[in-house]
Amino acid sequence: MVYDFLPDEQLREAVNLADFRGMFVFDKWTCDTNGRQAIFFRAKGETRYQAQMIDQGFCFNAGEWTFPDALIVSAWKS
User: Fold this and answer.
1) In a 3-state reduction of DSSP, which class is residue 54?
2) Which residue range forms the structural domain that includes residue 68?
């Protein structure tokens, strides 16, 4: 099964939780003006979920090729 949301307890146990930091840097570098989206899945026989980052469609300010500062920061403050 694939999920687009995990409760905090399960999210903290994701095998690649640190990848969210890397994607934050990528999103800032490419000015991805949309909130980061991820799906979560478990390989057969595994107990912990893995995140797969999806939807980079708003990189470069949604194709405008401008780089306004700090558009997605508010999404990470919650």
Assistant:
1) strand
2) 2-77
